[in-house]
Amino acid sequence: MASITIRQLDESLKQQLRLRAATHxxxxxxxxxxxxxxxxxxxxxxxxxxxxxxxxxPVAADAAVPSPIPRPAAPTATxxxxxxxGGGIAAYKSLDLIRRLRERHLAVRCILTAAAQEFITPLAxxxxxxxxxxxxxFDTTSELDIGHIRLARDTDAIVVAPATADLMAKMAGGHAxxxxxxxxxxxxxxxxxxxxxxPAMWARRATQxxxxxxxxxxxxxxxxxxxxxxxxxxxxxxxxxxxxxIAAAVEALLGDAGERPLAGKRIIVTSGPxxxxxxxxxxxxxxxxxxxxxxxxxxxxxxGAQVILVSGPVNVPNPPGVRxxxxxxxxxxxxxxEVALPADCAVFAAxxxxxxxxxxxxxxxxxxxxxxxxxxxxxxxxxxxxxxAHHKAQRPHLVIGFAAETENVIPNAKAKLxxxxxxxxxxNDVSPETGIMGGEMNxxxxxxxxxxxxxxxxxxxxxxxxxxxxxxxxxxD
Length: 477
Ligand code: CTP
Known about the structure:
Rossmann fold; binds cytidine-5'-triphosphate; 6-stranded parallel sheet; 2 domains
């Protein structure tokens, strides 16, 4: 019997073997044994090796690599995702995303932009998806076989990951000069984008403008997350959401497709603290993390609502599928809420500062030796909840306030319901020993004109889902 060593194989064969072994989580030697065993078992099991396709060619994975993953025609793979991979360093994470989606029994078809091919190859995407990979708009083979219109339609959802600044700009502008943008323009399925870029590019007005337009157009978003960037020494918001997070968002998107009780409703949510400047470097703030408000915004979006989240300074990511307007002060929050009207429902979960400094210092206030600091004169901020609840022309149908209390929770909440003119108050005890402010859990009482319901302690996400379900019922009525 002939003996072969992997070292003697030619480079392209070795590369294919490496990929196939990695796909199966085996060593290269084990992979060779598996192939030989399959070959010995019968001709149908062994696929002939073929030359690697050129980069611009559409790639049939199993034309280049001996069928590494079962074809998605398997009985479980009934739903299909079209994954558009943009050109950024995060493209390598999209290879893992393909695996995560396939683990969830989703068939995955990939489009790689020209820039994406600078980071990963169609061969790798094809090997992992087990499907032909598409790269060119003007490709006679693919246009005859499966044109860009069919690519856009023959899927349950489209995921763009990484969504680069350029790809987002093209989507927002309705461009169609390459396969990815043409497919996105032709699509009539839900689209989820996972932006990834340098934090400075993400923060640019142009990118934020494009993002706002995409969200208005009904495009769902996940991430970007905060953290270290691939570039040395760069950190901030811009990392692509992790493949597991994106896969979960895709599952939620597909799962929710038939059940969107807030579809067609517009909801404003305020969240987080406000910062009231004392001088250019100091401010008055509170301990609100924004977790509860952001969870409500996310749950409302998942239920199909068009959500405008007006958020004070927080460290939690913008929820997917939500238009987030970032503000600092109570006055900015007030203005942003007014601009966001009209709405069917408004949820005021923000911990708005009650007072602002009457005359914040233009320069940093300096200590003066032996002198007491000058007292801070405060003036009251306008109450956003109360103003909107009493709005003559544009009062939302359902106005919900929060009451953060440290004592007499329910009596105080009842008093707030009457005083502020809201329909419901969600009351919670935020004494330090409860760990609610800034924590993961919440324990709330829903105070309405009909009485008080005390909900069991649960995560802020669960509180959000329960509240959204109540909102859907109320708006439905
Ligand atoms: N709120 C608001 N605008 C303000 C102050 C509060 O919209 N300027 C809203 C909050 O978002 C919350 C509700 O009013 O929904 C209650 O906030 P809370 O801080 O609990 O009550 P206050 O009105 O500030 O009363 P107090 O601080 O005396 O408890």
